[in-house]
Specification:
The chain contains no helices and twelve strands. The protein is globular. Strands 1-2-3-4 form a four-stranded antiparallel β-sheet, with no helix packed on it. The protein is 0% helix and 36% strand. It has one domain: Integrin alpha, N-terminal (Methylamine Dehydrogenase, Chain H). The protein has 199 residues and is mainly beta.
C-alpha cells in the first residue's frame, strides 16, 4: 500500500496450475494464523467427491503468499461444504487468528465450530462452541458472519444478520467467552432489530 492509501500494482505469488483449484469451490478468510505479525489466507475447500479440506497460505515479507498447506480435512459424508459459512478472528485471545464455521443442520438447527490457530499457521480440530435447538436458527436465513472485538474484551466475537420469514431483520452477536481457552462463544445476543418492510 502507498502512503496516500492507494495500492501498488498487483502481482502473482502463487499459481495452482490448470485444473488443480476451482475458485467456486473455496471460501476464503484472512488473519495472522501463525502469529508472526503478517496476515495469512485460510481457505475452506469443497471437493467434487464430497470431501472437505482447509488450507493455509502463509503471508510472506513481500506481501505475497506461500503455497497452500493442508491442516484439516473431512471425508465425504462427514462434513458438507455447502452447509458451511466461514469467518476468522482471535477467539481465544492467544494472539493467533482462529477459524470459525457456522454450520447448518436439518430441521432449523445450526452450530458454531471453532478451529484454533496453531504456531505453524494450521488449525486444530474443531470444537463445537454453540448449538441451537431445532427450528430455532435457520442458517439459510442469515448473511455471512463477520468477526471483530465488538465488546473490547480482547477476544474477537462473531456478528451475523438474520432475515426472518415475516420480513424483519436482526443483528446477533456471539460474544467470545473469556472463561474458556478453546475459542468458544456465548449464545447469540440480539443487538438490533428492524420491523418488516424497513430493512
Amino acid at each position: 500500500m502507498k502512503a496516500d492509501g492507494t495500492f501498488n500494482a498487483s502481482f502473482g505469488s502463487w499459481k495452482s496450475g490448470n485444473g488443480n483449484w476451482c475458485w467456486n469451490e473455496s471460501k476464503h478468510v484472512t488473519g495472522d494464523f501463525n502469529g508472526d505479525g503478517r496476515d495469512d489466507m485460510l481457505a475452506l475447500y469443497g471437493h467434487g467427491n464430497g470431501s472437505v479440506e482447509m488450507y493455509t497460505l502463509l503471508g510472506k515479507a513481500d506481501g505475497g503468499f506461500a503455497a497452500p498447506v493442508r491442516s484439516w480435512n473431512r471425508a465425504a459424508g462427514i462434513w458438507d461444504y455447502n452447509r458451511s459459512k466461514l469467518t476468522s478472528g482471535d477467539y481465544n485471545g492467544d494472539g493467533r487468528a482462529d477459524a470459525a464455521i457456522v454450520y447448518r443442520f436439518d430441521n432449523g438447527r445450526s452450530a458454531v465450530y471453532t478451529l484454533t490457530g496453531k504456531p505453524d499457521g494450521g488449525v486444530n480440530e474443531e470444537v463445537q462452541s454453540w448449538s441451537s435447538p431445532e427450528q430455532s436458527w435457520y442458517l439459510e436465513n442469515t448473511g455471512m458472519p463477520v468477526s471483530g472485538d465488538i465488546n473490547k474484551d480482547g477476544r474477537d466475537d462473531i456478528a451475523i444478520m438474520y432475515n426472518y420469514y415475516a420480513g424483519g431483520s436482526a443483528a446477533f452477536t456471539f460474544k467470545g467467552r473469556t472463561d474458556r481457552t478453546d475459542g468458544g462463544f456465548e449464545p447469540p445476543l440480539k443487538s438490533w432489530e428492524a420491523p418488516p418492510g424497513t430493512w
